[in-house]
Amino acid sequence: MGKHRTFNADRFLDKFQGKESILRGYVGIWSGRLDLDIPNMNILKFKEFLANGDGDGKDELIEGLYRAYDLCTERGHEDLLAACRDWGYDPDPEGELPVESLSLKVRTEDEDIFNLAYDRNTLWRAERFSLFKGNEAKVIADVPAAAKRFQEKLAEIFKEDKSSDRVLVRQYREGSYSNFIVYHEKRTKAELVFKGSKSRPMVSPTVLRPAQQDFISYNNETGQLEIEARFENEETALRKAFAGCCLGDTDFFEGGDSGKRIKLTRIAEDDFDMSVEGEHSAVLIELHFKLKQLHGPSFVVRSKNVMETLDRNHLRKQLAGAEIRKAVFKIGFPDDKRGKRVELSGSNRIKFKRATHAEEVFRYLKNWKVVVG
After folding, report:
1. 212, burial (CB in 10 Å: exposed 0-12, middle 13-18, buried 19+)
2. What residue ranges do the domains of the chain occupy?
3. pLDDT in tens, 280-336
4. At what angle do helices 20-27 and 58-70 cross, to 10 degrees?
5. With left for phi above 0 and alpha for psi between -120 and 50, is residue 25 left, alpha or beta?
6. Vertex 179, ends 173 and 181: CA angle to 5°?
């Protein structure tokens, strides 16, 4: 289940001092459906409404506030600006709006752009994927139409498996990738916090956006599928439904070596090399392995450079024939000083934040032959 920050309504809404028109514009989406005098609304009156007001549009309004709040981070700000640039839309010509005001303004003026920023930010937070690959690279003919079919199919599956057919699939394309975010309409409660007293802040439970999100990213140039789901049976259902609805073949990623994408034994080979280009860097920083010896000894080596550490301790030659269970690389890019941590395990499990440099990461892993091309 997704974890979400508690929404501190005071802190968020206080950012609209002097910018009440943006807040009124957002609330105006539900004009006539709220017990609220919108033209004369100020921040204090709006807080009172959130705590005690009524109207059949209130839950939708609060859910929208939560989603706007989700983007009020450094990364969310970047995704908002990027989505606006992609659509040729400039909500802040003077560049003076704080992210809270910018987020709500974009949501009010163009929901499609807001959803694109939100979906990108949601996918950025995902990091544990399973890899699969079809026998060929096949292009999804009409991505929006395919997403609609995918949503309808998942509604059928979830109705039988979860007794709920409420599901939302959104998609966006980025380079050779078609990305799909599956929002399960399983609601949870979250706290909406107001100041109250210092010792006991006033808390109002309210309906939150969908709690579970699954992710699918498909590369139409390589035929590779990256999928994140909570449970193996759900992963299988998503994979087969995606293949049938988007590629016309439910068995597109089934059988053969489709799910055997990672070859960690490559690290034990004498000619293993982590070559990179230009100002990029790469190093192995963690390795888990078990030797085929009496008593089955296992080792976890963590180092700023595992390969050098293995050499210095005469362990590298012992890797031949060992069972390598997990490897963690750090790949550096000029715009990412901390480096991207990439964890590989099993036959097809990969963990890294794939919203940036995903294609480069996979290119290097394939060049090193630890991921099968």
Report:
1. middle
2. 7-125, 128-247, 264-367
3. 999 999 999 999 888 889 999 999 999 999 999 988 888 988 899 999 999 999 988
4. 130
5. alpha
6. 130
